[in-house]
Amino acid sequence: MRRILLSGIITILLSLVIDPLPTRAITVSSVTKEFLNFEILDAKMTSEFITIKGWAFINESQHYKNTTDHSIKLEFVSLNHTFTFDAKLTNFSMTSSFAAIGYSYCAAGVYGASNCNYYYEYVGFEAVIPLTSFIKGEKYITNIVFYANLSKIYFKTPLYYPIVNPIETMVGDYRFSIISKLNDTNIKVIESPVYARKSPSKTGTIWTYGTNCSTAYLNTLYFKMYSVYSNILDKTIVDSQTYYRVSARTDVCVDLRKRIIEGTVLNPVWISGMFVEYTGTPLEISSLLINNSPVIIASDFEYIIGTPINLLHYAKCVDYEDGDLTAKIVIESSDFQVRVGVYQVTYYVEDKYGYFDRKTVNITVLDIFNDPPLIFAYDRTVLQFSDFDYYLDVTAFDKQDGNITGLIKVLNSIDTSNILDQDLCYQVIDSKGAITIKCIIIHVYNEITLNRRYRYVSKNKLFFNESVPILWLNKVVDLQTILDNNILIQSFIIVGSN
Length: 498
Description:
36 strands
């Protein structure tokens, strides 16, 4: 029934595709492996080529007797690029593998027949594709395209080559990979009847298990049509055929034959790739740039006025792939002046692929006869809404100029209405232009905070109506001693922490 169904579909396609007008363009139809059967037997990669070997043919469409009856191409499709590559046909036969017992061979010129056998000669192929055919950085999915010249049927289908580990090679800074993940591949049985064998071979022992389905087939096991196996345990190639190992269990009887589906009872069970359809990740060819960003090496430095300077001499660059890129460093920005102060310079560099690095460093410019001034200012605490004296206890001194407190400038304001810590910055410039900036923290608190910061202490009772706080326990004796030894002290305020 399977053979008749497939031939019937091929016949319908023939009636639609065959065209007596030779000027019409060839139409390639996308189909599943059920109609365009294939197996990849080997895939290799060098620094120059990818080589893919296998076999393929359109089932029950025509005779394949020589290299003029058909042709094969591989199609590589990425997001931004598509190309095809002609495969070379090889003297590989699948005639005996697909010959139905009891049928004669079809007459010449008979297409899509179901009551005779076809020749499948020269259905092997080999494609040696230059790596330069692939755009670097792109990811390509592979299709196999088959041209049955006699029956004028042209099919293509995604190409699968399930493997455990990718095939990889480095070409310059790019890693090329062939990927078709075995653990991401499912197989579906698309032929019937197919024996369940205990070993990967055309002649391997056939499984028998459980009760009989009929006196003709007894308890011999066959794969159930369209059953899916999502856990492929192993893969091997024997006599130019791929075999997959799965685990199974018995199911219902179909056509008097006991059928199996995926399970855990029967293991190992082997099936030829000729009889399955693939789903999952098709053969993928990709190239990935393996490149590290360059690294600029530069640190803050001092410059003394009057000495020669080239800002580029203060930076170096090392790139893992390209080596020394110091000569490619440029100054992206700089406010450097030959004047006492602190300035910044930003260096920038790119490697050959556009990967970059930038780094900013500080330059402290000094006069050999001048030292930067010093600002003396300290963190302060003020009450909310109180008047704030910006210059209280703030002074400046310069080694050459002496006291230059009068030159101090306030760089920002303080809002005493907000209960928070605020930065306050001062700046002073000496007579030679040396600049110093110093910032302090102004702590603003309110009455609630004030009460938490102060505590009333009596000579007779240190903590009125309260237990002694843990942090004060070790101070009670000292406080009491002070009070006892000074009769003039009846009460006073002790400043504590929050």
